[in-house]
């Protein structure tokens, strides 16, 4: 696991204190404390107190060796997952539908993290999840030092996740071309696998949508998560009478053999410490209706 990072501050970098720099980089306060008392942050190879300035061209060296024992271990499983993006600190994979993101039991195998344990040289670390029956871009960290930074990017909406879904058209109401679904989500007391709209104890949940295509049989939606509740998109669309095609949990009319037509097609974030923006797109699986045409539009940036 990588624990040491060296960053040269860019030419357009505005001068700020060491403390402000670490705050802007979303480094947790507890870790800032360790870096300070152990003098494990160096500016141009020398320790500099946190109230002093750093400027453009400075070399910042961070040593997170106090995190070496924090890795979570998974049993390895055979297989290979398609890598969409990779750098020293993280990867983005195109998760196939039908594979769980992570194991729920210590002896469980066959999930994304079991496969990545065998596929990668670095132990994989979780940042976010995708439902088992959903395909698409999934971000995985390779260093514990970047996990809380990426977590904060997610909670502060610096990181974004966009999805495509084919849904059955509502029978009673028409759907505007774009809008926001704002419905709280809680557990379904009748089925522990499911979530439901819950106005009493549910957590706030917001999903933005845009209609990309529609006909009498189905509607293609582009969806952006403003929050990240379990099954959020699936619950929100089902609540509007627009169940995702192939969703056997929230669309009881689906045949079990069908694929769920929900795909995480785009993920964007900032690289930890450099803050360079990264956008990764995940090609749709072949079974997704109009996949060739949609993938072509994604490549052209017309979505």
Quick summary of this structure?
The chain is α+β, with helices and mostly antiparallel strands. The protein is 17% helix and 29% strand. It has a domain at 4-64: Structural Genomics Hypothetical 15.5 Kd Protein In mrcA-pckA Intergenic Region, Chain A, CATH 3.10.290.
Overview features:
single chain, 303 residues, alpha+beta, Structural Genomics Hypothetical 15.5 Kd Protein In mrcA-pckA Intergenic Region, Chain A, ten-stranded mixed β-sheet, four-stranded antiparallel β-sheet, isomerase, EC 5.4.99.-, PsdUridine_synth_RluA-like_CS, Pseudouridine synthase
What does this structure look like?
The protein has a domain at 4-64: Roll (Structural Genomics Hypothetical 15.5 Kd Protein In mrcA-pckA Intergenic Region, Chain A). The model has no long low-confidence stretch (mean pLDDT 92). The strands form four sheets. Strands 7, 8, 9, 10, 11, 12, 15, 16, 17 and 18 form a ten-stranded mixed beta sheet that branches. Strands 1-6-3-4 form a four-stranded antiparallel beta sheet, with no helix packed on it. It has a two-stranded antiparallel sheet with strand order 2-5. The protein has helices at 18-24, 29-37, 112-119, 147-155, 232-239, 291-300, and strands at 4-8, 16-17, 41-43, 46-47, 53-54, 59-63, 83-86, 90-95, 125-126, 135-141, 160-167, 178-182, 185-187, 195-197, 206-214, 219-225, 262-270, 277-281. By secondary structure, it is of the alpha+beta class. Helix content is 17%, strand content 29%.
């Amino acid at each position: 696991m990588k624990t040491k990072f060296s960053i040269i501050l860019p030419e357009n970098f505005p001068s700020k204190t060491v403390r402000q720099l670490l705050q802007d980089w979303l480094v947790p306060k507890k870790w800032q404390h360790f870096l300070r008392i152990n003098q494990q942050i160096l500016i141009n190879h020398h320790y500099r107190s946190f109230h002093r300035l750093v400027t453009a061209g400075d070399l910042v060296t961070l040593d997170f060796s106090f995190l070496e024992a924090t890795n979570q271990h998974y049993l390895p499983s055979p297989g290979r997952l398609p890598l969409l993006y990779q750098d020293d600190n993280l990867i983005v994979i195109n998760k196939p539908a039908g594979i769980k993101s992570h194991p729920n039991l210590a002896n469980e195998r066959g999930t994304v993290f079991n496969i990545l344990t065998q596929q990668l040289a670095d132990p994989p670390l979780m940042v976010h999840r995708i439902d088992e029956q959903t395909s698409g871009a999934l971000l995985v960290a390779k260093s514990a030092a970047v996990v809380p930074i990426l977590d904060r990017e997610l909670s502060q909406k610096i990181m974004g996740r966009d999805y495509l879904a084919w849904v059955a058209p509502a029978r009673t109401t028409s759907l505007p071309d774009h809008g926001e679904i704002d419905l709280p989500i809680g557990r379904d007391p009748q089925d522990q696998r499911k979530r439901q709209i819950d106005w009493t104890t549910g957590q706030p949940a917001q999903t933005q949508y845009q209609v990309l295509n529609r006909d009498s049989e189905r509607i293609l939606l582009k969806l952006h998560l403003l929050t990240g509740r379990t099954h959020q998109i699936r619950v929100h669309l089902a609540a509007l009478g627009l169940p995702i095609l192939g969703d056997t949990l929230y669309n009881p009319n689906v045949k079990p053999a069908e694929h769920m037509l929900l795909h995480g097609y785009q993920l964007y974030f900032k690289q930890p410490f450099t803050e360079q923006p990264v956008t990764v797109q995940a090609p749709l699986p072949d079974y997704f209706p109009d996949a060739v045409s949609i993938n072509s539009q994604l490549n052209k940036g017309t979505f």
